[in-house]
Automatic annotation (TrEMBL):
This is Aldose epimerase family protein. It holds the Pfam family Aldose_epim. One of its GO terms (biological process) is carbohydrate metabolic process. The lineage of its organism: Bacteria, Pseudomonadati, Pseudomonadota, Betaproteobacteria, Burkholderiales. GO terms for molecular function: carbohydrate binding; isomerase activity. Gene3D superfamilies: 2.70.98.10. InterPro entries: Aldose_1/G6P_1-epimerase (IPR008183), Gal_mutarotase_sf_dom (IPR011013), GH-type_carb-bd (IPR014718). It comes from the Bacteria.
Length: 318
């Protein structure tokens, strides 16, 4: 792609935040769920996209699902029927403004974030949730969150924080949702132990072996087209590489705790979509009756903060 052919403009009054480091660029869309809209670099007349870039139509629609990556807070993935019981009290998120039958990814990805400090290579985004009857604000625990996003010569770094502002314990999940370019020659490499199998919804049913587990560990890696995936993997070593061998390039996502699980979304019916996500829990963790090591998730005490960070390190492959 010619460098002068790539441009991305937000609607009037909703500017993008641009980070720059040499030939590398990151575009942030605070008004679209605190999302990353693009991460790319120029090489001569070419533009190399490390994440699937947003489009102006998706920006105008405020659709985080059309961004390059977006934060998952205060929980990740689905909650069955948008309901759960915590500390003996029922929680109903079915009227949360979420159009999905199972509550999905919390509410921070559907709300605007505020820009804090910003320099050429670093920006901080902030989000605060107060209790309200407004649609999209039915999560019954007040919290605040931030993202510190840093671009350097080797990587894009994202550090997230989540703080419980309620006067009682709050269940939580945290994650990020990057979309990668998907071609006929896209491969994913990672060490994992098992995969959560699921229903068509999809919701998890059981942990077991799967062909993708061994493929991920193989020298070639897992082809993005090999299976119809929307599944969680356990036992990963918090590092996964997405490679495009015919383009002689790769990007490695490395994460720290509490990102103890990895999601791969590579649907057969959407052959252009590929997500490889660092998350703190599997879908519907709060309703699953299994050991915490198998499902993740956690609880923040009043005033307690958790930090979670990951990086996308790019590589040229000979």
């Amino acid at each position: 792609m010619s460098a002068d052919l790539f441009s991305l403009a937000a609607p009037a009054g909703e500017p993008l935040v641009e980070l720059r480091h040499g030939a590398r660029r990151v575009l942030l869309a605070p008004h679209v769920g605190g999302a990353v809209a693009a991460f790319y670099e120029t090489r001569g007349a070419d533009v190399i996209h490390w994440l699937r870039p947003a489009t102006e139509a998706m920006l105008a629609a405020h659709n985080a699902l059309g961004m390059a990556s977006f934060p998952l807070l205060p929980y990740c993935n689905r909650i069955r029927d948008a309901r759960f019981v915590f500390d003996g009290e029922p929680v109903d998120l079915s009227d949360d403004g979420n159009r999905f039958p199972h509550a999905l990814h919390g509410n921070a990805w559907r709300r605007p974030w505020r820009v804090g400090e910003s320099t050429e290579t670093r920006a901080t985004l902030h989000f605060q949730h107060a209790l309200s009857d407004e649609a999209g604000h039915r999560w019954p625990f007040a919290f605040e969150a931030s993202q510190e996003i840093v671009l350097d010569a080797d990587a894009l770094h994202i550090a997230m924080t989540l703080r419980n502002l309620a006067d009682r314990p709050m269940p939580f999940g945290i994650g990020h949702h990057p979309y990668f370019p998907r071609t006929a020659n896209t491969f994913v490499h990672a060490h994992v132990d098992e995969m959560w199998h699921g229903t068509p919804d999809p919701l998890p049913t059981h942990l077991a072996a799967h062909g993708s587990v061994e493929a991920l560990k193989s020298p070639q890696g897992l082809s993005a087209d090999a299976f119809d995936l929307d599944n969680h993997f356990v036992g990963w070593n918090r590092a996964v590489t997405i490679a495009w061998p015919d383009e002689h390039r790769a990007v490695t996502l490395s994460a720290g705790a509490p990102f103890d699980f990895m999601v791969i979304y590579a649907p057969k019916q959407l052959p252009d979509e590929l997500c490889v996500e660092p998350v703190s829990n599997v879908a519907d963790w709060i309703n699953l009756d299994v050991a915490r090591a198998q499902k993740g998730g956690g609880v923040l005490q009043p005033g307690e903060t958790i930090r979670a960070a990951f990086a996308l390190t790019t590589q040229r492959v000979v």
